[in-house]
Amino acid sequence: ATARRASALAGLLSGRRPRGLVTASSPKTIRRFYKETSAGEHGDFWRVFLDGKPVKTPRGTFLELPTRPLAQAVAQEWGAQGEKLKPKEMPLTTIGCTAADLIRPEKASCVERIMPYLAMDTVCFEDEKEELAELQGKEWAPLRAWFEGRYGVQLAIGRGLEGPPHPEATLPTVSLALESCDEWELTALEIATASAKSLVVASALMHREDVRAKDALRWSLLEEHFQIERWGLVEGEHDVSHSESVMWYAACRRFGRLGRELAPDAE
């Protein structure tokens, strides 16, 4: 019974965000049906257990993760739940289930979905307004330079309605590099890329030591932040949306780091 209910909850967990990657739904209330959570090794992977029963994904496969630290973090999400389970508070589990069910069977399709974001990357445009263009150059130019160095490519800048005229070799080179990533890294990268509408921002979030979720949010919404700094933030929809985005950016970064057995960021 525990295993069946764990699988049912995993189905609900597929219902919160990553835009376009998992389907949205209104999670039903499920009472906590287990006492103990743990992580254990199984072959080359790690699994999460509820009262000794392995957690399954929405499609009924076992939730498998690449490292012990990541499996322990997912187990902690389940362990932190109260009397009623809150799927919205379990983003690492959501990312893990997405990796197992959607990305592992079709890694090439994942890369194909990511690459158009680089073709029209948010940080590869320059606004016509001089003040905003100056801010974009200050904050985005170093970001682009880092990306160019990481992948050995060159990026171009688009202005007005014209997309950035990247050199012909840029997209194939980056695509080839992404094809070598495992399903867990690709899943987190796709979620971050779709949220930021920028592979450059997502890559920095996943791989730079000095980048945090708040940086990804600022870079992806630089024009909005420019306006906020001039006119102030109107409380309501935007600040709620920002909080949700930061939560997902942080989850993607943590998932990626733990999946590579890197130390989590200091709080």
Number of extended strands:
8
Major β-sheet profile? 4 strands, antiparallel
Q: Helices and strands: which structural class?
A: alpha+beta
* Number of helical segments with 4 or more residues: 11
Helix-residue proportion: 40-55%
Radius of gyration: 19 Å
Please provide the ordered H/E string of secondary-structure elements: HEEEEEHEHHEHEHHHHHH
**Sequence stretches where pLDDT stays below 50 over 5 or more residues:** 15-25
What is the end-to-end distance? 37 Å
Mean pLDDT across all residues, rounded? 89
Beta-strand fraction estimate: 5-15%
Tell me, what's the shape?
globular
Oligomer: single chain
Top keywords for this entry?
267 residues, alpha+beta, four-stranded antiparallel sheet, two-stranded antiparallel ribbon, 11 helices, 9% strand, globular
Summarize the structure in words.
This protein has 11 helices and 8 strands. It has 267 residues and is α+β, with helices and mostly antiparallel strands. β3 and β4 form a beta hairpin. The chain is globular, with a radius of gyration of 19 Å. The two termini are 37 Å apart. The model is unreliable at 15-25 (pLDDT under 50).
In short:
The chain has 267 residues and is an alpha+beta fold. It has 11 helices and 8 strands.
Write the layout of secondary structure elements.
Elements: H1 2-13, E1 30-31, E2 37-42, E3 45-50, E4 53-54, E5 64-65, H2 68-79, E6 84-85, H3 91-103, H4 107-119, E7 125-126, H5 130-151, E8 158-159, H6 170-179, H7 183-196, H8 199-207, H9 213-220, H10 222-231, H11 237-259
Parallel strand pairs: 7-8
Antiparallel strand pairs: 1-6, 2-3, 3-4, 3-5
